[in-house]
Amino acid sequence: MNILVTGGAGYIGSHIVLLLGKLGHDVTVIDNLSTGRRESVIGAELIVGEVADSAFLDKVMNTKKFDACVHFAGSIIVPESVTNPTKYYDNNTVNSLNLIQACLRNKISKFLFSSTAAVYGIPVGGECLESTPVMPINPYGKSKLMTEWMLEDTAAAHKDFNYVALRYFNVAGGNVEGLVGQCSPFSTHLIKIACETALGKRKSMSVFGDDYKTPDGTCIRDYIHTDDLAQAHIDSIEYLVAGGKSDIFNCGYGHGYSVNDVLETVKKVSGVDFEVTKGPRREGDAPNLIAVSDKIRKTLGWKPKYDDLSLIVRTALDWERNLK
Ligand SMILES: NC(=O)c1ccc[n+]([C@@H]2O[C@H](COP(=O)([O-])OP(=O)(O)OC[C@H]3O[C@@H](n4cnc5c(N)ncnc54)[C@H](O)[C@@H]3O)[C@@H](O)[C@H]2O)c1
């Protein structure tokens, strides 16, 4: 298949691009390299450009008949979305609209969207089904939810347009062969920060709140390995191309680890007892955020292979160690 990928030079996109290429698909990446890196695009053509630029999108979409468009490009730092919301509505919502419109103009009728657990906000009990009410509590989550809504309405109006929105939980780790991983300079991801601290790239790190109503008082999250997430994208594309209807799927393993579990694992795997300080709670942190992922397993036949915190941490550490 010919697959168009936006944001394929970024952390998650580069894993999907790699897997698509390995499976023999012809992949074209559009990326403005604002947070992505040229060298992260392996086995695909990279065209540097802007999702905001309609004429550029038309030009790329005219080069061949694309079977599907996979949309990763976006801005992803939640605290930044609170201080600079218009950046998020612009890059995540307006630019997604631009891309959807370009797909309609150029008859690309299968669309795969990177959504997020942030659309659920602080769900009661912490377990999220796809039917759990969506109540995002920050501009990042709202900007992504608006794109889900645009896709829903577009698919309702254009019967041949179908989409899948994958709501990722906490994405972590790096490619098991060490080919791609997380490069983002201002990452707020716990496992990346803990690995940086273990390797001496940071002096110490903080735990934000240890008085939550969880067994050890720290927040619990559902960490999903990037290569399993990549497989979920392949399954989604195959589903859409086979005539599957528009749908939304959670991407997580269905169980979680606390911040303390993660830190202990990073210390054990790295062999470094790095300094961790206690900080106050951060506003908007749910105590528990776990994906109920039965739907993606049943509907798409997704079978994760890397549901193992030590492996996730090892791949993240190996990647971080080699990162220049
Ligand atoms: N990282 C996570 O844990 C997580 C969780 C849930 C959802 N997501 C979603 O997954 C997607 C990818 O996230 P990531 O962690 O790989 O982030 P990333 O910053 O590493 O990747 C984003 C990529 O998009 C590119 N880009 C951004 N704006 C662009 C534009 N206007 N035009 C062209 N290219 C542009 C960047 O250069 C980068 O390569 C995002 O849409 C994000 O909302 C990520």
Overview of the molecule:
The chain is α/β, with parallel strands linked by helices and 324 residues long. It has 2 domains: 2-172 and 223-251, Rossmann fold; 190-221 and 254-322, UDP-galactose 4-epimerase, domain 1, CATH 3.90.25.10. It is 38% helix and 20% strand. The protein contains 10 helices and 15 strands. The protein has a 7-stranded parallel sheet, with helices on both faces. A 4-stranded mixed sheet has the order 6-15-10-13. α1 links the parallel β1 and β2 (26-31). α2 packs parallel to α4 (85-105), α6 runs parallel beside α8 and α6 crosses α10. The mean pLDDT is 97.
Distance between the termini: 34 Å
CATH homologous superfamily assignment of the largest domain: NAD(P)-binding Rossmann-like Domain
Architecture of the largest domain, according to CATH?
A: 3-Layer(aba) Sandwich
Q: What is the global morphology?
A: globular
Oligomeric state of the chains present here: single chain
Describe the protein's topology:
Blueprint lengths: L1 E5 L4 H12 L3 E6 L13 E4 L5 H8 L6 E4 L6 H6 L1 H21 L4 E7 L10 E2 L10 H19 L4 E7 L1 E3 L17 H9 L5 E5 L11 E2 L1 E3 H16 L5 E5 L5 E2 H12 L4 E5 L8 E4 L2 H7 L8 H14 L2
Parallel strand pairs: 1-2, 1-4, 2-3, 4-5, 5-7, 6-15, 7-12, 8-11, 9-14, 10-15
Antiparallel strand pairs: 10-13
Helix pairs in contact: 1-7, 2-4, 4-5, 6-8, 6-10, 8-10
Bound molecules: nicotinamide-adenine-dinucleotide.
Features:
4-stranded mixed sheet; binds nicotinamide-adenine-dinucleotide; Rossmann fold; 2 domains; 324 residues; UDP-galactose 4-epimerase, domain 1; alpha/beta; 10 helices; globular
